[in-house]
Design brief:
The complex is a heterotetramer, with two copies of chain A and two copies of chain C. By secondary structure, chain A is of the alpha/beta class. Chain A is built from eleven helices and 14 strands. Chain A has two domains: 182 residues, Rossmann fold (3-Layer(aba) Sandwich); 130 residues, Rossmann fold, CATH 3.40.50.920. Chain C has one domain: Rossmann fold. The chains are: A alpha/beta, C alpha/beta. The structure holds thiamine diphosphate (TPP) (2 copies) and magnesium ion (MG) (2 copies).
Chain lengths: 331, 331, 324, 324
Amino acid sequence: MPETTTYAKALNTALAGLLAGDERVFLMGEDVGVYGGAFGVSDGLLDRFGEDRVRDTPISEDAIVGAGVGAALTGMLPIVEIQFSDFVVNAMDPLINQAAKLHFMYGGRANVPLVIRAPGGGGTGAAAQHSQSLEAWFAHIPGLKVVLPATVQDAHDLLIAAVRDPNPVVFLEHKLLYKTEGHFEATDDVENPVAKIGESRVIRHGSDLTIAAYSIMTIRALQAAEQLADDGIDVEVIDLRTVRPLDIGPVRESVMKTGRLVVAHEAPIPVGVGAEVVAGVVESNALDYLLAPVRRVGAMDVPMPYAKDLEQAVIPQTGDIVDAVKEVIKS
Amino acid sequence: MPETTTYAKALNTALAGLLAGDERVFLMGEDVGVYGGAFGVSDGLLDRFGEDRVRDTPISEDAIVGAGVGAALTGMLPIVEIQFSDFVVNAMDPLINQAAKLHFMYGGRANVPLVIRAPGGGGTGAAAQHSQSLEAWFAHIPGLKVVLPATVQDAHDLLIAAVRDPNPVVFLEHKLLYKTEGHFEATDDVENPVAKIGESRVIRHGSDLTIAAYSIMTIRALQAAEQLADDGIDVEVIDLRTVRPLDIGPVRESVMKTGRLVVAHEAPIPVGVGAEVVAGVVESNALDYLLAPVRRVGAMDVPMPYAKDLEQAVIPQTGDIVDAVKEVIKS
Amino acid sequence: MPRRDPSTPEGAVESLRLMWTIRRFEEAVEELFDRGQLHGTMHLSIGQEAVAEGVAAALETGDMITSTHRGHGHTLAHGADPATMLAELLARETGYCRGRGGSMHIADVAGGNLGANGIVAGSMTIAAGAALAERMKGGDRVTVCFFGDGAANEGSFHEAINLAAIWDLAVVFVCENNQYGMSMASDKGTAGGSVAKRADAYGIPGSQVDGNDVVSVFETTLEMVRRAREGEGPSLIEALTYRYRGHSKSDRNLYRTQTEIDDWRNLRDPLDRFEGSLLESGGVETGTIDKIRGEVRESIRDAVTEAFAAPPTTVADLEGAAYA
Amino acid sequence: MPRRDPSTPEGAVESLRLMWTIRRFEEAVEELFDRGQLHGTMHLSIGQEAVAEGVAAALETGDMITSTHRGHGHTLAHGADPATMLAELLARETGYCRGRGGSMHIADVAGGNLGANGIVAGSMTIAAGAALAERMKGGDRVTVCFFGDGAANEGSFHEAINLAAIWDLAVVFVCENNQYGMSMASDKGTAGGSVAKRADAYGIPGSQVDGNDVVSVFETTLEMVRRAREGEGPSLIEALTYRYRGHSKSDRNLYRTQTEIDDWRNLRDPLDRFEGSLLESGGVETGTIDKIRGEVRESIRDAVTEAFAAPPTTVADLEGAAYA
Ligand SMILES: Cc1ncc(C[n+]2csc(CCOP(=O)(O)OP(=O)(O)O)c2C)c(N)n1
Ligand SMILES: Cc1ncc(C[n+]2csc(CCOP(=O)(O)OP(=O)(O)O)c2C)c(N)n1
Ligand SMILES: [Mg+2]
Ligand SMILES: [Mg+2]
């Protein structure tokens, strides 16, 4: 095993391990076979595991996810890839009205261990219908779990945890992260996940302000922290990793130490996960420790534009986090 | 005109006025014709306006909303009824990827003046797939407006405002409100709406604590306020009325006066509109006026159960608001 | 071997019993509702018993079904216990879903009933997925997917059947065409005028059957189930039948005439017809029929009593119940 | 009266010019992309020019189209200005969407182009709605809805066509079957083996045409447009064609052979064939063809220059731009 790899390859390794380790696991989606997936995540898996278990589908998101629900309900562990997370809108019934609710609706007597993998986010010039970050929706729905790994290792570890989870899990990968490199250790044991869904993590310690982020914004938050350090501002960064269930404890604790909070995500701000993080903090005693109004960093409140400069302006960048932190520190 | 009427009849009157006043307006949906709509909102309109303009559709939510988008784009003012707001999940592509984005995506050169009306909420024993409150999703999406009237008069006035708005508007009616009676004045002038989308309103003045709510929870908040008054707690109630755009100003001002905040909605709490309201307050200077942690009142974090007692336990009731207020006052 | 064969005297007795069980069950539910002892809404399948039973009779134990909002008949014919169903409707802890699902969500996944569904066409892709899983597990169980005529205009209908067809999945899609989707007449909402004919679009067999004739429903289903089980792929059956009651309790029946309802009830009732043909052919005697009727009446009465006696649901363990 | 009639010498010249315009436009876009002057992704319609032009030629001014992610050809044939399109791709303020839409969202609603669409099958229900509006306004404009073979397996395909069929809407649904939906071969993903045949399910005419023969596309479309305009309702045309380039730039073409690509290109190219038949019939001379080629080459070169010279987009008025 190499000591570093890319986010996409880490996912590929996790998929291979899962497919090899458990007959109930299969991967299904548009162009996941010979094409290797739109972003190459399933490259080579068809050759290794065959058409049955690395299953190309027609362009029928509703049927793909619905079939995933049916298969999960009857004993399989399907991993469904939706080519861009924007197209999950075509499969909201099986995901929201079926997968998320069946366990409860059937009195706890059935499970839907389904994983939906989908690339989200902007920055590729693919415009409004191919660049959304829709995690807030899924995080609103009881019955779903929602995972957004930021690092190469987490991509691998949390995917295994997602497949092992007896509940439907929406697993959102950021397109710009696929090619990022990072430290990586593969595991052969796909039955005992090393990562746990629902654990946020302090990934940088600091004393002046807390940044909570996830997915690509975790990376940008770390970059912002480095820049801010040059200005003598000592930032703590928390990677939320899972937005449902949301592990708010570490954020509260951190705020009780730093007294200041910035939450960053790429999705638009209104009714986003950032709002949840903020609310989760100020409905606890951590409120008493807040020295300044909080700030949320998110996309400008418009659909994603095509033009590169507009897209960059809409997507929150490292500089936007830096600015937000400075404002909060000042106030 | 009678001085009081029901929420359903007020909507019916608004629809009739709109249909009579503008040839571009039409109503389309499942069973809106001879059936009068699943909740009777369009009762009698077929007879008055004919099959063309009060248009029964097959059970094809995607096509109904998509056709609404196409008609709105080309000069009509369609009002689309989705029989239960839960079924909007079948029409998320036309609503989210098309209606909400076209104006922006087309460089501002086209509009989609579409209204989607849908009944939401629980309390009718219809269980998990017929009882959801999904406003948080729509409120997250730039390009949409989201209206949730609580009163009979607002149901009428805001529906007219929604149809006059050049943007797509999601108009969510609460099933339990349909039969509620209230003061009502109809307008003949459907071209100049008296109500404005995006205005919250203080509907009860008080000094001890602010409750922000919308839709049926506004009614419950008022009831809670009366009960609390008996205990000497003087509550201010704000009806948000629109959750996108969210008029947060009055909430901030109120909190600066009362120092305490409870937000109430029927939807589950995580990443709900309540989180947005809280965040909107504490990212302003209103933070400095907060004397106690805020509280959100929302559904228990499960799908809606069928059994009446379970359903009542899951849906936030007046008593839950009272309890939340007392806790905040105590702390 | 099917569960029972209504075209034989022994099977007929069983099928008749099941059809009466459905009828009496629905009537009991209606009465409970009218008396205010049931809340929520309800969609009765009175008049459609031959479809449920004709199809279910052709299945083997272990075969799976998915059902609809109007699912009591399918559920009973597939072998559910009436008392446990009633316990669900009466919101008892002993109900199929512990009172959490209610009429529209009765399921017994372990027993092969993947569930009723409150979403029109919502179970069609689930059925395809169950059949896919079965194939991958190497099993030969067949999945029957019940859906309504109104559901045939949902996108899920199209996607599910296309998927099942390209993968030759062992699903029999059964359209219960009761002439209306709520107030929308089937021939007004369904272009092409026939659901069965839509099978051609997917290159699979489609047949229209008299849905009020239990034997003909059974025979067609039997052949389609055989095909599916032998790996020949999915098929589509459209069973023409009629709903006597309103769509749900809020229905004022403004979209159809009383004459139409009466005609179906008086001239084509599935129970009348089945009993008539059994008597005519001499396969079953009047006494037997009377006995069945009496027994069913009693058994449903007992089921109601049993359900009422069951412990009510409790809110105690609701918290966290969304997750396994 | 159609816009132009490729079966007449005058019309042929116009159609040939448009087909070359599409080809050269796409090649220019490809080059810009390869040189790094265009970002995002792109879906080229090289090889499919006869479908776009054959259909658009049969429309009248004012008729509407909806298009797809692979929409440059439809857009050009419907009358768009190449420089304004390139301005969009180059993210200029003067582009069709002020640089906010890009390749997948080029639209000109006032001019009857309701837009390309990044969602597979996403414009099908929109087309039905536009036709419904037209009917309600008492107009007789026809809407053409382009979609791909892959789109035929989306639920929206089914719902849109059913709706258009029951309401007799003036929509011509044109399936551009270029053999693949990304890497999925059409005959592997599409049960029943034919998109055109699916028309039967909705009781509307369905025809399969040689999509590399502009005249036959034109003639079939003309008749379907006439029907639609005269209130006879929607129809479905499946035009068989081929995509020479990868699905998008990330495509490694692993799902097909080079021979297959070469065969289509060498033996069935729509431009070669059209020119060949024009020369053969003597309707158009070599000189004319050479002249058209030269003029188109120049006009596209000019369009590129013009687009480059246009002012870039600005972030100034982005805030609030989601709302009208
Ligand atoms: C997606 C969706 N749309 C609409 C409804 C509301 N609804 C419930 S049943 C029904 C009619 C269904 O008709 P059909 O499929 O023919 O079944 P039937 O009621 O006749 O048994 C409608 C419109 C729903 N439950 N789900
Ligand atoms: C709803 C949806 N699903 C998937 C995609 C990704 N995607 C874009 S184009 C395409 C293939 C479309 O095939 P087809 O309809 O045949 O059109 P073609 O590309 O061949 O012109 C896919 C899968 C999408 N854009 N939208
Ligand atoms: Mg029906
Ligand atoms: Mg194609």
